[in-house]
Amino acid sequence: MNRREKIEEEAADWLARVDRGLSREEEVLFARWKAADIEHRIIFLQLQAAWQRADRLAAMRQPSPSASRLPRRLPLKAAAIAAVLVMCVGLGLGLAYRARDIPPQRFETAIGARRSLNLADGTHVELNTNTVIHASITREARTVTLDRGQAYFEVVHDDRHPFVVIAGNHRITDLGTKFSVRRDGDRVDVVVTEGEVRVEHIAGEHVGAPVVAERNMVVIARRNETLVAQRHPKEIDDAMLWRSGMLSFNQEPLAAVAEDINRYNTRKIEVVGPARDIRIGGSFRSDNIEGFTQLLRDGFGLKIVETDDKIVISN
Amino acid sequence: MVGVRACAIQGVRLEDDVEQWFAREILPLEPMLDRYLRRSWRDQWEVLDLRQDAYVRVYEAALREKPVNPRNFLFQVARNLMIDRSRRKNVVSFDSFADFDGMEAEDDQPDVEQSTAAQQEIRLLRAAIGELPPRCREVVTLRKIEGLSQRDVARRMGITEDTVERQVANGIRLLRKYLNPNQASPAPDTHLPAGSLKVSWK
To answer: Which residues of chain B are within 8 Å of residue A19 when distances are taken between CB atoms?
Structure first.
Protein backbone atom coordinates (compact mmCIF):
# COMPACT_ATOMS: atom_id res chain seq x y z
CA MET A 1 0.00 0.00 0.00
CA ASN A 2 1.44 3.35 -0.94
CA ARG A 3 1.40 6.42 1.27
CA ARG A 4 -1.73 7.96 -0.23
CA GLU A 5 -3.69 4.73 0.03
CA LYS A 6 -2.78 4.54 3.68
CA ILE A 7 -3.93 8.12 4.25
CA GLU A 8 -7.14 7.34 2.41
CA GLU A 9 -7.83 4.38 4.66
CA GLU A 10 -7.27 6.49 7.77
CA ALA A 11 -9.39 9.29 6.35
CA ALA A 12 -12.27 6.89 5.62
CA ASP A 13 -12.09 5.57 9.19
CA TRP A 14 -12.24 9.12 10.54
CA LEU A 15 -15.10 10.08 8.27
CA ALA A 16 -17.09 7.02 9.40
CA ARG A 17 -16.52 8.12 13.01
CA VAL A 18 -17.51 11.72 12.24
CA ASP A 19 -20.60 10.28 10.53
CA ARG A 20 -21.70 8.63 13.79
CA GLY A 21 -20.57 11.51 16.02
CA LEU A 22 -17.19 11.99 17.73
CA SER A 23 -16.55 11.73 21.44
CA ARG A 24 -14.56 14.49 23.19
CA GLU A 25 -11.35 12.44 23.09
CA GLU A 26 -11.86 11.59 19.46
CA GLU A 27 -12.32 15.24 18.56
CA VAL A 28 -8.86 15.96 19.94
CA LEU A 29 -7.32 13.00 18.12
CA PHE A 30 -9.09 13.95 14.90
CA ALA A 31 -7.82 17.54 15.06
CA ARG A 32 -4.33 16.21 15.69
CA TRP A 33 -4.56 13.80 12.74
CA LYS A 34 -5.72 16.58 10.43
CA ALA A 35 -3.02 18.95 11.59
CA ALA A 36 -0.25 16.39 11.05
CA ASP A 37 -0.24 16.61 7.26
CA ILE A 38 -1.96 18.83 4.73
CA GLU A 39 -2.67 15.75 2.61
CA HIS A 40 -4.66 14.27 5.49
CA ARG A 41 -7.02 17.22 5.23
CA ILE A 42 -7.23 17.12 1.46
CA ILE A 43 -7.93 13.40 1.16
CA PHE A 44 -10.45 13.63 4.00
CA LEU A 45 -12.24 16.43 2.13
CA GLN A 46 -12.22 14.39 -1.09
CA LEU A 47 -13.85 11.41 0.63
CA GLN A 48 -16.29 13.69 2.40
CA ALA A 49 -17.34 15.23 -0.93
CA ALA A 50 -18.16 11.76 -2.31
CA TRP A 51 -20.00 10.76 0.88
CA GLN A 52 -22.05 13.99 0.90
CA ARG A 53 -22.92 13.57 -2.76
CA ALA A 54 -24.80 10.41 -1.79
CA ASP A 55 -27.13 12.62 0.31
CA ARG A 56 -28.84 13.59 -2.93
CA LEU A 57 -30.30 10.11 -2.97
CA ALA A 58 -32.43 11.05 0.04
CA ALA A 59 -34.82 12.40 -2.58
CA MET A 60 -35.54 8.75 -3.33
CA ARG A 61 -36.91 8.23 0.16
CA GLN A 62 -40.56 7.30 0.14
CA PRO A 63 -42.83 10.06 1.40
CA SER A 64 -44.55 8.12 4.20
CA PRO A 65 -42.46 6.82 7.10
CA SER A 66 -41.25 3.34 6.28
CA ALA A 67 -42.23 2.01 9.68
CA SER A 68 -45.89 2.15 8.81
CA ARG A 69 -46.21 -1.27 7.18
CA LEU A 70 -43.11 -3.23 7.94
CA PRO A 71 -42.08 -4.06 11.47
CA ARG A 72 -38.71 -2.57 12.29
CA ARG A 73 -36.17 -4.74 13.99
CA LEU A 74 -36.33 -4.57 17.72
CA PRO A 75 -33.58 -2.80 19.61
CA LEU A 76 -30.77 -5.21 20.40
CA LYS A 77 -31.60 -5.61 24.06
CA ALA A 78 -35.27 -6.27 23.42
CA ALA A 79 -34.31 -8.62 20.61
CA ALA A 80 -32.03 -10.53 22.97
CA ILE A 81 -34.79 -10.87 25.55
CA ALA A 82 -37.23 -11.90 22.83
CA ALA A 83 -34.74 -14.47 21.56
CA VAL A 84 -34.43 -15.98 25.05
CA LEU A 85 -38.22 -16.10 25.38
CA VAL A 86 -38.56 -17.69 21.97
CA MET A 87 -35.94 -20.25 22.93
CA CYS A 88 -37.80 -21.08 26.16
CA VAL A 89 -41.10 -21.33 24.32
CA GLY A 90 -39.41 -23.29 21.56
CA LEU A 91 -37.92 -25.75 24.05
CA GLY A 92 -41.23 -26.11 25.86
CA LEU A 93 -43.11 -26.73 22.66
CA GLY A 94 -40.28 -28.89 21.39
CA LEU A 95 -40.88 -31.25 24.29
CA ALA A 96 -44.59 -30.95 23.68
CA TYR A 97 -44.24 -31.88 20.05
CA ARG A 98 -42.55 -35.09 21.03
CA ALA A 99 -45.18 -35.73 23.64
CA ARG A 100 -48.25 -35.02 21.53
CA ASP A 101 -49.18 -33.71 18.12
CA ILE A 102 -49.98 -30.07 17.60
CA PRO A 103 -52.82 -29.34 15.19
CA PRO A 104 -51.67 -27.88 11.85
CA GLN A 105 -51.22 -24.13 11.88
CA ARG A 106 -51.78 -21.60 9.11
CA PHE A 107 -49.61 -18.51 8.71
CA GLU A 108 -49.97 -15.82 6.08
CA THR A 109 -48.84 -12.37 5.02
CA ALA A 110 -50.61 -9.65 3.04
CA ILE A 111 -49.13 -8.02 -0.07
CA GLY A 112 -46.15 -5.90 0.95
CA ALA A 113 -45.86 -7.47 4.41
CA ARG A 114 -43.19 -9.71 5.94
CA ARG A 115 -43.35 -11.89 9.00
CA SER A 116 -40.92 -14.04 10.95
CA LEU A 117 -41.97 -16.83 13.27
CA ASN A 118 -40.73 -19.97 14.98
CA LEU A 119 -42.40 -23.31 14.58
CA ALA A 120 -43.00 -25.71 17.45
CA ASP A 121 -39.81 -27.65 16.65
CA GLY A 122 -37.70 -24.46 16.87
CA THR A 123 -37.36 -23.98 13.10
CA HIS A 124 -37.18 -20.32 12.21
CA VAL A 125 -39.35 -19.19 9.29
CA GLU A 126 -39.56 -15.84 7.49
CA LEU A 127 -42.46 -15.15 5.18
CA ASN A 128 -42.17 -12.75 2.27
CA THR A 129 -45.01 -10.78 0.70
CA ASN A 130 -48.37 -12.44 -0.12
CA THR A 131 -47.49 -15.85 1.32
CA VAL A 132 -49.51 -18.69 2.86
CA ILE A 133 -48.04 -21.72 4.64
CA HIS A 134 -49.47 -24.58 6.67
CA ALA A 135 -47.23 -26.14 9.28
CA SER A 136 -47.84 -29.63 10.60
CA ILE A 137 -45.40 -30.70 13.29
CA THR A 138 -46.08 -34.20 14.61
CA ARG A 139 -44.09 -36.97 16.29
CA GLU A 140 -43.47 -38.64 12.98
CA ALA A 141 -42.95 -35.81 10.55
CA ARG A 142 -42.42 -32.11 10.20
CA THR A 143 -44.17 -30.78 7.11
CA VAL A 144 -44.73 -27.25 5.86
CA THR A 145 -46.94 -26.72 2.84
CA LEU A 146 -46.28 -23.60 0.81
CA ASP A 147 -49.56 -22.62 -0.84
CA ARG A 148 -48.17 -19.50 -2.42
CA GLY A 149 -45.42 -16.89 -2.02
CA GLN A 150 -41.94 -17.25 -0.58
CA ALA A 151 -40.53 -18.44 2.71
CA TYR A 152 -37.07 -18.76 4.22
CA PHE A 153 -36.29 -21.60 6.62
CA GLU A 154 -33.57 -22.09 9.21
CA VAL A 155 -34.22 -25.69 10.15
CA VAL A 156 -33.36 -27.30 13.45
CA HIS A 157 -32.08 -30.48 11.88
CA ASP A 158 -33.20 -33.86 13.15
CA ASP A 159 -32.33 -36.99 11.14
CA ARG A 160 -35.18 -38.98 12.62
CA HIS A 161 -37.77 -36.29 11.88
CA PRO A 162 -36.93 -34.85 8.47
CA PHE A 163 -38.20 -31.36 7.77
CA VAL A 164 -40.13 -31.27 4.52
CA VAL A 165 -41.54 -28.40 2.49
CA ILE A 166 -44.23 -29.25 -0.03
CA ALA A 167 -44.53 -26.65 -2.81
CA GLY A 168 -46.99 -27.71 -5.49
CA ASN A 169 -45.63 -30.84 -7.12
CA HIS A 170 -42.27 -30.58 -5.43
CA ARG A 171 -41.01 -31.88 -2.15
CA ILE A 172 -37.99 -30.20 -0.57
CA THR A 173 -36.35 -32.16 2.22
CA ASP A 174 -33.93 -30.54 4.63
CA LEU A 175 -30.54 -32.18 5.03
CA GLY A 176 -29.21 -29.68 7.60
CA THR A 177 -29.97 -26.33 6.12
CA LYS A 178 -30.90 -22.73 5.57
CA PHE A 179 -32.88 -22.23 2.39
CA SER A 180 -35.73 -20.36 0.80
CA VAL A 181 -38.58 -21.66 -1.33
CA ARG A 182 -40.70 -19.58 -3.65
CA ARG A 183 -43.86 -20.89 -5.28
CA ASP A 184 -45.78 -19.22 -8.03
CA GLY A 185 -48.32 -21.76 -9.32
CA ASP A 186 -46.31 -24.51 -11.06
CA ARG A 187 -43.04 -22.69 -10.67
CA VAL A 188 -40.90 -23.49 -7.63
CA ASP A 189 -37.51 -21.90 -6.92
CA VAL A 190 -35.25 -23.02 -4.09
CA VAL A 191 -32.18 -21.07 -2.96
CA VAL A 192 -29.77 -22.75 -0.55
CA THR A 193 -27.63 -20.53 1.69
CA GLU A 194 -26.29 -23.23 3.99
CA GLY A 195 -26.15 -27.01 4.13
CA GLU A 196 -28.08 -29.18 1.66
CA VAL A 197 -31.60 -29.89 0.49
CA ARG A 198 -33.10 -32.65 -1.63
CA VAL A 199 -35.75 -31.70 -4.18
CA GLU A 200 -38.13 -34.25 -5.68
CA HIS A 201 -40.92 -34.02 -8.17
CA ILE A 202 -44.05 -35.64 -6.73
CA ALA A 203 -47.20 -36.11 -8.74
CA GLY A 204 -49.64 -38.31 -6.89
CA GLU A 205 -47.91 -41.57 -6.08
CA HIS A 206 -45.17 -41.02 -8.63
CA VAL A 207 -41.89 -39.64 -7.31
CA GLY A 208 -39.25 -38.42 -9.79
CA ALA A 209 -35.49 -38.72 -9.41
CA PRO A 210 -34.34 -36.41 -6.63
CA VAL A 211 -31.72 -33.69 -7.03
CA VAL A 212 -29.53 -32.49 -4.20
CA ALA A 213 -28.51 -28.86 -3.94
CA GLU A 214 -25.98 -27.45 -1.54
CA ARG A 215 -24.84 -24.03 -0.37
CA ASN A 216 -24.88 -21.32 -3.07
CA MET A 217 -27.00 -23.42 -5.40
CA VAL A 218 -30.46 -22.79 -6.74
CA VAL A 219 -33.05 -25.26 -7.90
CA ILE A 220 -35.44 -24.08 -10.57
CA ALA A 221 -38.37 -26.47 -10.90
CA ARG A 222 -41.08 -26.21 -13.51
CA ARG A 223 -43.87 -28.62 -14.30
CA ASN A 224 -41.64 -31.46 -15.51
CA GLU A 225 -38.17 -30.02 -15.46
CA THR A 226 -35.80 -29.45 -12.62
CA LEU A 227 -32.58 -27.53 -13.01
CA VAL A 228 -29.81 -27.17 -10.44
CA ALA A 229 -27.34 -24.32 -10.86
CA GLN A 230 -24.36 -22.98 -8.98
CA ARG A 231 -24.53 -19.25 -8.21
CA HIS A 232 -21.97 -16.69 -7.12
CA PRO A 233 -22.29 -15.99 -3.36
CA LYS A 234 -23.16 -12.36 -4.19
CA GLU A 235 -26.11 -13.53 -6.28
CA ILE A 236 -27.26 -15.69 -3.38
CA ASP A 237 -27.00 -12.71 -1.05
CA ASP A 238 -28.99 -10.63 -3.51
CA ALA A 239 -31.64 -13.33 -3.78
CA MET A 240 -32.03 -13.14 0.01
CA LEU A 241 -32.26 -9.35 0.22
CA TRP A 242 -36.05 -9.57 0.50
CA ARG A 243 -35.48 -10.64 4.09
CA SER A 244 -34.47 -7.04 4.82
CA GLY A 245 -37.16 -5.54 2.61
CA MET A 246 -34.92 -4.92 -0.39
CA LEU A 247 -34.86 -6.13 -3.96
CA SER A 248 -31.73 -6.35 -6.06
CA PHE A 249 -31.45 -6.42 -9.83
CA ASN A 250 -28.47 -7.08 -12.00
CA GLN A 251 -29.09 -5.64 -15.45
CA GLU A 252 -32.51 -7.24 -15.78
CA PRO A 253 -35.19 -6.10 -18.23
CA LEU A 254 -37.53 -3.51 -16.80
CA ALA A 255 -40.54 -5.77 -17.53
CA ALA A 256 -39.10 -8.50 -15.26
CA VAL A 257 -38.16 -5.96 -12.59
CA ALA A 258 -41.69 -4.53 -12.63
CA GLU A 259 -43.15 -8.03 -12.28
CA ASP A 260 -41.01 -8.60 -9.21
CA ILE A 261 -41.91 -5.25 -7.63
CA ASN A 262 -45.59 -5.98 -8.29
CA ARG A 263 -45.42 -8.89 -5.87
CA TYR A 264 -45.01 -6.34 -3.09
CA ASN A 265 -47.57 -3.72 -4.02
CA THR A 266 -51.31 -3.69 -4.60
CA ARG A 267 -50.86 -0.94 -7.19
CA LYS A 268 -49.33 -2.72 -10.18
CA ILE A 269 -46.70 -1.43 -12.58
CA GLU A 270 -47.33 -2.09 -16.25
CA VAL A 271 -44.51 -1.52 -18.74
CA VAL A 272 -45.41 -1.09 -22.40
CA GLY A 273 -43.41 -0.79 -25.60
CA PRO A 274 -39.62 -0.78 -25.97
CA ALA A 275 -39.23 0.36 -22.36
CA ARG A 276 -39.82 -3.30 -21.39
CA ASP A 277 -36.28 -4.12 -22.53
CA ILE A 278 -34.45 -1.37 -20.68
CA ARG A 279 -31.89 -2.98 -18.37
CA ILE A 280 -32.07 -2.16 -14.68
CA GLY A 281 -29.38 -2.64 -12.06
CA GLY A 282 -29.25 -1.70 -8.40
CA SER A 283 -31.32 -2.29 -5.31
CA PHE A 284 -34.56 -0.79 -4.13
CA ARG A 285 -36.84 -1.02 -1.14
CA SER A 286 -39.59 -3.35 -2.24
CA ASP A 287 -42.31 -1.03 -0.90
CA ASN A 288 -40.83 2.12 -2.40
CA ILE A 289 -42.81 2.07 -5.62
CA GLU A 290 -42.95 5.88 -5.76
CA GLY A 291 -39.18 6.16 -5.52
CA PHE A 292 -38.76 3.53 -8.20
CA THR A 293 -41.05 5.21 -10.72
CA GLN A 294 -39.53 8.59 -9.88
CA LEU A 295 -36.12 7.14 -10.72
CA LEU A 296 -37.42 5.86 -14.05
CA ARG A 297 -38.84 9.27 -14.88
CA ASP A 298 -35.86 11.34 -13.75
CA GLY A 299 -33.10 8.91 -14.51
CA PHE A 300 -34.26 7.32 -17.75
CA GLY A 301 -36.70 9.95 -19.03
CA LEU A 302 -39.59 7.47 -19.20
CA LYS A 303 -43.24 8.49 -19.25
CA ILE A 304 -45.23 7.59 -16.14
CA VAL A 305 -49.04 7.60 -16.10
CA GLU A 306 -50.60 6.85 -12.72
CA THR A 307 -54.13 5.73 -11.97
CA ASP A 308 -55.65 4.41 -8.75
CA ASP A 309 -54.81 0.76 -9.35
CA LYS A 310 -51.85 0.89 -11.73
CA ILE A 311 -48.85 2.78 -13.00
CA VAL A 312 -48.17 2.61 -16.73
CA ILE A 313 -44.58 3.14 -17.87
CA SER A 314 -43.65 3.82 -21.48
CA ASN A 315 -40.96 5.56 -23.54
CA MET B 1 -2.53 33.63 28.03
CA VAL B 2 -5.76 35.08 26.67
CA GLY B 3 -3.87 36.23 23.62
CA VAL B 4 -2.46 32.77 22.91
CA ARG B 5 -5.87 31.14 23.24
CA ALA B 6 -7.53 33.67 20.99
CA CYS B 7 -4.80 33.00 18.49
CA ALA B 8 -5.36 29.26 18.65
CA ILE B 9 -9.10 29.67 18.15
CA GLN B 10 -8.33 31.98 15.26
CA GLY B 11 -6.15 29.24 13.80
CA VAL B 12 -8.90 26.65 14.01
CA ARG B 13 -11.37 29.05 12.41
CA LEU B 14 -9.00 29.78 9.58
CA GLU B 15 -8.53 26.05 8.95
CA ASP B 16 -12.28 25.40 8.97
CA ASP B 17 -12.79 28.33 6.68
CA VAL B 18 -10.18 27.12 4.19
CA GLU B 19 -11.55 23.57 4.35
CA GLN B 20 -15.01 24.80 3.44
CA TRP B 21 -13.64 26.99 0.69
CA PHE B 22 -11.61 24.11 -0.71
CA ALA B 23 -14.58 21.73 -0.68
CA ARG B 24 -16.85 24.35 -2.24
CA GLU B 25 -14.57 25.93 -4.88
CA ILE B 26 -11.83 23.45 -5.74
CA LEU B 27 -13.10 19.87 -5.36
CA PRO B 28 -16.03 20.25 -7.78
CA LEU B 29 -13.43 21.02 -10.47
CA GLU B 30 -11.84 17.60 -10.04
CA PRO B 31 -13.33 15.87 -13.14
CA MET B 32 -12.29 18.83 -15.27
CA LEU B 33 -8.83 18.95 -13.73
CA ASP B 34 -8.37 15.22 -14.30
CA ARG B 35 -9.34 15.57 -17.94
CA TYR B 36 -6.97 18.46 -18.37
CA LEU B 37 -4.09 16.56 -16.80
CA ARG B 38 -4.77 13.36 -18.73
CA ARG B 39 -4.89 15.29 -21.96
CA SER B 40 -1.71 17.21 -21.26
CA TRP B 41 0.50 14.70 -19.52
CA ARG B 42 1.96 11.78 -21.37
CA ASP B 43 2.55 9.45 -18.43
CA GLN B 44 -0.97 8.64 -17.32
CA TRP B 45 0.06 6.93 -14.11
CA GLU B 46 1.41 10.25 -12.83
CA VAL B 47 -1.86 12.13 -13.30
CA LEU B 48 -3.18 11.23 -9.84
CA ASP B 49 0.09 12.40 -8.34
CA LEU B 50 -0.02 15.69 -10.22
CA ARG B 51 -3.59 16.35 -9.16
CA GLN B 52 -2.90 15.73 -5.47
CA ASP B 53 0.25 17.87 -5.61
CA ALA B 54 -1.73 20.67 -7.22
CA TYR B 55 -4.28 20.41 -4.38
CA VAL B 56 -1.57 20.70 -1.74
CA ARG B 57 -0.18 23.83 -3.36
CA VAL B 58 -3.59 25.43 -3.75
CA TYR B 59 -4.52 24.59 -0.15
CA GLU B 60 -1.27 26.03 1.19
CA ALA B 61 -1.73 29.19 -0.85
CA ALA B 62 -5.30 29.57 0.42
CA LEU B 63 -4.10 29.41 4.03
CA ARG B 64 -2.13 32.59 3.28
CA GLU B 65 -4.69 34.20 1.00
CA LYS B 66 -7.59 32.81 -0.97
CA PRO B 67 -7.21 33.35 -4.72
CA VAL B 68 -9.84 35.59 -6.33
CA ASN B 69 -10.49 33.19 -9.21
CA PRO B 70 -10.17 29.65 -7.82
CA ARG B 71 -10.58 27.89 -11.16
CA ASN B 72 -7.91 29.85 -12.98
CA PHE B 73 -5.61 29.55 -10.01
CA LEU B 74 -5.99 25.76 -9.80
CA PHE B 75 -5.30 25.23 -13.49
CA GLN B 76 -2.37 27.64 -13.39
CA VAL B 77 -0.88 25.66 -10.49
CA ALA B 78 -1.42 22.39 -12.35
CA ARG B 79 0.21 23.78 -15.46
CA ASN B 80 3.21 25.07 -13.51
CA LEU B 81 3.59 21.66 -11.88
CA MET B 82 3.70 19.97 -15.25
CA ILE B 83 6.22 22.49 -16.51
CA ASP B 84 8.43 21.91 -13.46
CA ARG B 85 8.26 18.17 -13.86
CA SER B 86 8.93 18.11 -17.55
CA ARG B 87 11.90 20.43 -17.04
CA ARG B 88 13.32 17.97 -14.57
CA LYS B 89 12.58 15.04 -16.85
CA ASN B 90 13.69 16.90 -19.89
CA VAL B 91 11.11 15.28 -22.15
CA VAL B 92 8.16 17.31 -23.33
CA SER B 93 8.10 20.80 -24.74
CA PHE B 94 6.07 23.27 -22.68
CA ASP B 95 3.66 24.36 -25.35
CA SER B 96 2.38 20.80 -25.72
CA PHE B 97 0.13 21.36 -22.68
CA ALA B 98 -3.47 21.84 -23.61
CA ASP B 99 -4.79 25.28 -23.04
CA PHE B 100 -7.12 25.11 -20.06
CA ASP B 101 -9.15 28.07 -21.32
CA GLY B 102 -10.45 25.68 -23.94
CA MET B 103 -11.66 23.35 -21.20
CA GLU B 104 -14.17 25.88 -19.90
CA ALA B 105 -16.07 26.11 -23.17
CA GLU B 106 -16.35 22.36 -23.19
CA ASP B 107 -17.57 22.01 -19.64
CA ASP B 108 -20.06 24.85 -19.38
CA GLN B 109 -22.37 23.30 -21.90
CA PRO B 110 -25.30 25.72 -21.96
CA ASP B 111 -27.49 23.32 -23.91
CA VAL B 112 -27.41 20.75 -21.15
CA GLU B 113 -30.36 21.48 -18.92
CA GLN B 114 -29.95 21.61 -15.19
CA SER B 115 -32.55 18.85 -14.72
CA THR B 116 -30.65 16.51 -17.07
CA ALA B 117 -27.51 17.02 -15.01
CA ALA B 118 -29.49 16.22 -11.87
CA GLN B 119 -30.88 13.08 -13.50
CA GLN B 120 -27.44 11.96 -14.53
CA GLU B 121 -26.20 12.57 -11.02
CA ILE B 122 -28.98 10.44 -9.49
CA ARG B 123 -28.34 7.72 -12.04
CA LEU B 124 -24.63 7.73 -11.33
CA LEU B 125 -25.18 7.61 -7.56
CA ARG B 126 -27.68 4.74 -7.84
CA ALA B 127 -25.21 2.85 -9.97
CA ALA B 128 -22.43 3.55 -7.45
CA ILE B 129 -24.54 2.16 -4.59
CA GLY B 130 -25.53 -0.81 -6.74
CA GLU B 131 -21.86 -1.72 -7.05
CA LEU B 132 -21.32 -2.00 -3.29
CA PRO B 133 -21.15 -5.47 -1.69
CA PRO B 134 -24.60 -6.48 -0.33
CA ARG B 135 -24.13 -5.77 3.36
CA CYS B 136 -22.26 -2.52 2.73
CA ARG B 137 -24.99 -1.53 0.27
CA GLU B 138 -27.68 -2.14 2.84
CA VAL B 139 -25.86 -0.01 5.43
CA VAL B 140 -25.26 2.85 2.97
CA THR B 141 -28.84 2.68 1.69
CA LEU B 142 -30.33 2.86 5.17
CA ARG B 143 -27.93 5.63 6.16
CA LYS B 144 -28.22 7.75 3.01
CA ILE B 145 -31.62 7.03 1.47
CA GLU B 146 -33.59 6.22 4.59
CA GLY B 147 -31.61 8.79 6.56
CA LEU B 148 -31.16 6.57 9.62
CA SER B 149 -28.33 7.27 12.06
CA GLN B 150 -25.56 4.68 12.32
CA ARG B 151 -27.05 3.55 15.62
CA ASP B 152 -30.50 3.06 14.06
CA VAL B 153 -28.96 1.24 11.10
CA ALA B 154 -27.35 -1.19 13.57
CA ARG B 155 -30.69 -1.75 15.30
CA ARG B 156 -32.59 -2.21 12.09
CA MET B 157 -30.11 -4.73 10.74
CA GLY B 158 -29.47 -6.42 14.06
CA ILE B 159 -25.70 -5.91 13.82
CA THR B 160 -23.26 -4.07 16.07
CA GLU B 161 -22.55 -0.35 15.73
CA ASP B 162 -18.89 -1.18 15.15
CA THR B 163 -19.84 -3.27 12.14
CA VAL B 164 -21.97 -0.43 10.77
CA GLU B 165 -19.07 2.01 11.24
CA ARG B 166 -16.71 -0.36 9.40
CA GLN B 167 -19.18 -0.77 6.55
CA VAL B 168 -19.61 3.02 6.36
CA ALA B 169 -15.83 3.47 6.08
CA ASN B 170 -15.76 0.77 3.43
CA GLY B 171 -18.68 2.36 1.58
CA ILE B 172 -17.05 5.79 1.63
CA ARG B 173 -13.93 4.49 -0.09
CA LEU B 174 -15.85 2.46 -2.67
CA LEU B 175 -18.17 5.37 -3.48
CA ARG B 176 -15.22 7.68 -3.90
CA LYS B 177 -13.55 5.14 -6.17
CA TYR B 178 -16.65 4.74 -8.29
CA LEU B 179 -17.45 8.45 -8.51
CA ASN B 180 -13.84 9.44 -9.25
CA PRO B 181 -12.50 6.54 -11.31
CA ASN B 182 -9.16 8.28 -11.84
CA GLN B 183 -8.43 7.21 -8.27
CA ALA B 184 -6.57 4.09 -9.29
CA SER B 185 -3.95 5.31 -11.70
CA PRO B 186 -2.92 2.68 -14.22
CA ALA B 187 0.48 1.13 -13.71
CA PRO B 188 3.11 1.96 -16.29
CA ASP B 189 2.71 -0.22 -19.34
CA THR B 190 6.15 -1.72 -19.81
CA HIS B 191 5.34 -3.02 -23.27
CA LEU B 192 4.84 0.48 -24.50
CA PRO B 193 7.80 1.57 -26.67
CA ALA B 194 9.53 4.62 -25.22
CA GLY B 195 8.19 7.85 -26.62
CA SER B 196 4.81 6.62 -27.81
CA LEU B 197 1.66 8.24 -26.63
CA LYS B 198 -0.78 6.27 -24.54
CA VAL B 199 -4.35 7.17 -25.34
CA SER B 200 -6.22 4.62 -23.28
CA TRP B 201 -8.29 7.34 -21.62
CA LYS B 202 -10.24 8.11 -24.79
So the answer is: 143, 150, 165, 168
